[in-house]
Specification:
430 residues; BirA Bifunctional Protein, domain 2; eight-stranded mixed β-sheet; five-stranded mixed β-sheet; elongated; binds adenosine-5'-triphosphate; binds magnesium ion
Length: 430
């Protein structure tokens, strides 16, 4: 039997409501903050990612899916979205509209990593990019948006960690300082980190090997911000303080991509265990220019959706909000099947999610099915009642039932509290 590839997963109908909730709440809040959706291709020229993410990073060194296509072009499955969006921004002249291009995306990313809880080879990200401003209040807006998004989803116990890497010159100064800090431990570092020591010493802070992690823990934090970058960072904090977004400063946070400058941040969530980073982001002031555009500052973030779904799955209120079907049409006697089918259609067209049992057995069996679905109401069509255009409306929560005129049924159902409409508006006005 052919199985799904290692590190990939089917998202099954029972789990999908969580995913749809994340997407719906995301789209809504991103729109409120002025971000518009963009969808870029899943395949790109591999060089796009090598140039942006950096060739000393884990992603480029060992995680990227690269292949040559039939025309011998070197193609990559995108490992992240920022590089693609910057490419699209330049290629489609999105800067022509003026101001800040505020974009959001939702979609699959691919990295060949060792699969484990919260880490897959095909995973999904939802994120935003704000391209075209270096104003520190945009940093504050983007960080606040990530926190507000979690609040709207009902995710609790999350922590925002914040740092500034400074500009390119500051980064070089920090790298020099850390080279000296790590030099005494050079022999004890893993092979990859020995290589990182030469290529980009900051990457050592990102190493997942326990021995390197404990060395990195003992290295003192270094900050070498120039006056401009220090002032920028102070203003980001002022912005966040002004709107009450809580954060802690973590001077050792470097993030796994080379293109970051100045502000970087990460959000962790307590219930996620070892893989607790649910969101990561930061400024990338040199990337647009690096990829052939004008010198354009930018900032963004990405949430891992599997980890969001894991965090949400543990939230009680979400578990309880999963009622899907509202009414069930039951038939006492096969003769009324056609009428039941018509009623089912009218209920659905009125926006009331409804089910029927297509392998009708006894009324008892149908009631069991209705209970299993967790519906609020069962509408029973009985031959006697139907002769006088009536049906029985059974309230499954109150355990009460009453006869009701068929042509008043939908209005009656719509007036009942607790009945969720699939859409607030009728699907079709008849
Ligand atoms: P990590 O340190 O966990 O590998 P990262 O630095 O590689 O994270 P980013 O590239 O910044 O992560 O991606 C942002 C978010 O995307 C992460 O915080 C995480 O929630 C999610 N993510 C990254 N890689 C994976 C993966 N392989 N499977 C599932 N989610 C992922
Ligand atoms: Mg990673």
């Amino acid at each position: 039997m052919i199985k799904a590839l290692r590190g990939t997963k089917d998202i099954l109908p029972d789990e999908i409501s969580l995913w749809q909730r994340i997407e719906a709440i995301g789209r809504n809040i991103f729109n409120i903050y002025g971000y518009k959706e963009i969808r870029t291709p899943i395949i790109e020229e591999a060089s796009l990612f090598i140039r942006s993410i950096g060739d000393a990073t884990d992603i480029v060194q060992k995680e990227m899916y690269v292949f040559s296509d039939r025309g011998n072009r070197i193609i990559a499955l995108r490992p992240e979205a920022t590089a693609s969006i910057v490419r699209a921004y330049i290629e489609n002249s999105l800067f022509q509209a003026g101001g800040v291009a505020k974009l959001f995306y939702i979609g699959p990313m691919f990295r060949s990593e060792r699969p484990q809880q919260g880490r897959q080879r095909q995973f999904y990200q939802i994120g935003v990019e704000a391209i075209g401003s270096d104003n520190p209040f945009i940093d504050a807006e983007v960080i606040a948006l990530s926190a507000r998004f979690l609040e709207c989803l009902g995710v609790k116990k999350f922590h925002v960690k914040l740092n500034s890497l400074g500009c390119q010159k500051d980064k070089i100064r920090v790298i020099e300082k850390h080279k000296e800090n790590f030099r005494p431990y050079l022999e004890r570092l893993c092979e990859t980190c020995k290589n990182r020591f030469d290529k980009n010493v900051l990457r050592i802070f990102d190493c997942k090997e326990d021995s390197c992690k404990s060395i990195a823990q003992n290295i003192k934090a270094e900050s070498a911000l120039c006056d401009d970058c220090a002032e920028h960072f102070e203003k980001v904090k002022v912005g966040l303080n002004a709107i009450g977004v809580e954060y802690t400063i973590d001077n050792k946070m470097v993030r796994g991509l080379d293109y970051y400058t100045r502000t970087v941040f990460e959000i962790t969530q307590e219930s996620l265990g070892a893989k607790d980073a649910v969101c990561a982001g930061g400024r990338y002031n040199n990337l647009v220019k690096e990829l052939g555009g004008k010198d354009t500052p930018a900032i963004g973030f990405a949430f891992g959706m599997e980890r969001l779904a894991l965090a949400l799955d543990k939230a009680e209120e979400v578990k309880n909000a999963r009622c899907k079907v509202n009414t069930f049409v039951a038939i006492a006697g096969d003769a009324l099947y056609n009428e039941a089918f018509k009623l089912l259609d009218s209920l659905r067209m009125a926006g009331i999610s409804s089910e029927i049992d297509y392998d009708t057995k006894s009324l008892k069996a149908q009631m069991r099915k209705a209970e299993k679905l967790g519906v609020k109401f069962v509408i029973i069509l009985g031959e006697e009642e139907f002769k006088s255009n009536k049906v029985v409306l059974k309230d499954m929560e109150k355990h009460s039932q009453e006869e009701i005129q068929l042509d008043k049924l939908i209005a009656e159902l719509c007036s009942r509290p607790g009945l969720e409409h699939s859409y607030t508006k009728k699907v079709v006005d008849r």
